[in-house]
């Protein structure tokens, strides 16, 4: 806006303000054109620009204080005048943050304009301390509320809403403590406004609106007004307003005053010491001990003695500014203060009446509006504030659970928890408004914290019904994983750049309450079953056209392999060795299908069960189909023994799976929305398991959790004693209970410990509280452990610069690499590589029959921890050798057995005698490689076993349906079911049908490399079948083997092949006895 236009607008505004009215003998008289002038001001405000110049001009003129409020007081019965004044007041008192779309302006001039508007609003709030203004507004609001809905016009509804918005705007104006300079137990401007509203009995109308079912449209306005009225009050202080102050509270005030006085005296003392009578040029020359200069001598300083204590090399370094997005966020402006006794008594009565008459119905209404999206985007914040404030007030004021029954339930926990997750997701996605979402997350966190505190208070209630209700509710929130994960999730994702330290204090308090409740609950119950989320699985959803022809696209070999896997389970089910389910339904009787469609449905269910390896269900469905449609060949016959063949035909048939009845309608509606491309969707399956509190606490041994707690510990001087105690308890769990004290080996933590020790031992003993002493004990424990670790590990001093996880903490004390499941690969240094090249060039021509070049290198290397394999791999990496297998040592067939070899063999046998593969373990760990049969003969010779059979691999006892196995002891031999399976295979083989694949055993017999199981000795193989031809050429042999595979001898051939491979490995061409 240009200067000429600004001057013209200014003159018009001044003319309009001068025609409103004037004072005469203590009374304000309006002008005839008063209403028109007010409308002109409204039009000017509507046409205001982005700089809000019109609003700032009216603020400088102070038209609200000099004209608008006097008109409201002296002409309360003028309906037209009252309507225009209220509209103008609502516009002028609109919060400044809303004028800038809830974002603080960054540009310099815009920020100055914003601050000017805020100062005008603070002057408006001072003008509203007049009780006569509130009496006029209250009478008008009361008259409008007395009208019934039938007689209430739209103008009346708008007027009610404008009055409530005006009250909200006045209370929303922020306080200015630097200008007011008010202390606790004193009256500030906000208290004066509250007292003026109390004199006008405005709170009674608010209680009526919140409790009435006919005024639910204004519930959000009233809830926001209540939150602004009580924003500076503490629920605990209000609940104890009528109680006299205890001696402890008075002593606490005295201590705080003395502490502030000591801080002021210390600051003045430092200022006095900084002053010097001599000129700085003659400060003196000193040497600083324990601080080296450029050379080996001590540092020489030319400065005064008062500045030598602050000597640092960083003084001359340029300051590196930290980016704004990485700076810690400033603390919130929420100031809690203690008002005068009259104000506290008035607000306590308001809270008591609200809890008694309005809390439950209003919270029910507000929550229903929020769930139906009838409120604004941020209205749930007022719901969370009311939940937190009034539940805490009720907890300190007699604690009647019935007064807050609407919000102490499972639904309330679920709603708050889901909103917390939503807020965090918005913080991640909406970066521009991350600070706004962070504040909303903080409000929700306080609500969740109060829910937990109220639940903990219900345990100590004298009423049995309340304690039982708390027990049921705790069982719910401890059972579901969502409630257990939320606290750890918030801790792991704490970000100091967007979340203030007050948020961390509330978060730590919430974690402390939850963990303490969970620990007591776990101690009171021997076995706690909780639900856990299983690992997500991927489920493919293919095209509809491909889904119908899925079986057609599978190769015949794959289908034959699948049939071999499922046929063994079918044999068990048909012979009655597996229990069949009795609750199967062959088709869906709710659908109006024909008989042929019902048969197709039954066949598709059988086909689906076979594909899912549910053989018992498939056989039960087949027999159910036999009873429904007797004489049908497609279902076979139990008397004629054709069930197996019928199931085989159903398995190989191209049958599409039929949809369930519950999903039939959904599939029909989703047909048009199916995509042409394949999609993969993840689904989580929940499972139940026993809960262990120690395992839950171990999850807090995370570097992010330790960083958050140590950051809060660094503010121990400003923390409350309760907060310090909560931080101390968690660090004690980590350092003492879990033995993870190396996670606290960090320079910033030690700096905090140094300050704690200084405060603990510099102050008199009577001034040191118990929490500070416990923190000093923790610091002493951690530092002593650090000194002990430093004696064994000199690198621990460098580890102070880094935060450590559990693996790093363990290796810091027990040695690097000790925490790894697999041995860590040690990198080759340049010196070691050079040494390896020299040794290889020296000994590559000096090989002996007993030692090759690798053995000679290992003997002469400085690093004796290198293995033969690592040397071979490094030689290949350097290009010195081409093939590692050329240097692989062969078994020494004729090597004599020395005494140490026999002792080693005995030790290995005793160590692995309980193993399922004794010989495999012994052969792997023998220092001198020998043929397998030589080792077996030596074991028999020295009497460790009596029979070679004892050295074979042991089988696990088979069990379960479908060929599945159950865990058994390693000593169990082969069961009788194995023989029965082999007999069934042989019967099917003679009948010409496809054989049933025997059940696979993990440890059955001597397992070859390819995993095939060796059949028992008495099991018939292809050797017992009469042969009609002999292979005399490779082509003929290939033909014979193909025929044997087709007739069902594939398992036997695989076993024979694996046995020959094992024998080939044990064969030594230099030893004739090894054949």
Explain the overall architecture.
With 1075 residues, this protein is mainly alpha-helical. Among the domains are: 7-128, no CATH class; 134-178 and 186-246 and 343-370; 408-532, no CATH class; 558-652, no CATH class; 701-814, no CATH class; 830-888, no CATH class; 899-942. The chain is built from 45 helices and 8 strands. The protein has a two-stranded antiparallel sheet with strand order 1-2. Strands 3-4 form a two-stranded antiparallel sheet. A two-stranded antiparallel sheet has the order 5-8. Helix 37 crosses helix 38 (853-860). It is extended and about 130 Å long. Mean pLDDT is 80; it is low at 540-553, 657-683 and 956-1028.
Major β-sheet strand ordering:
1-2
What does the largest sheet look like? 2 strands, antiparallel
Radius of gyration using CA atoms only:
43 Å
- Compute the number of helices: 45
Structural class: mainly alpha
> How large is the share of residues in beta strands?
under 5%
Mean pLDDT: 80
Coarse morphology? extended
- End-to-end C-alpha gap: 107 Å
Low-confidence stretches: 540-553, 657-683, 956-1028
> What share of the residues lie within helices?
55-70%
- Annotation, overall tally of beta strands: 8
Organism: Rhipicephalus appendiculatus
Subcellular location: Nucleus
Biased composition (Basic and acidic residues): 982-996
GO molecular function: DNA binding
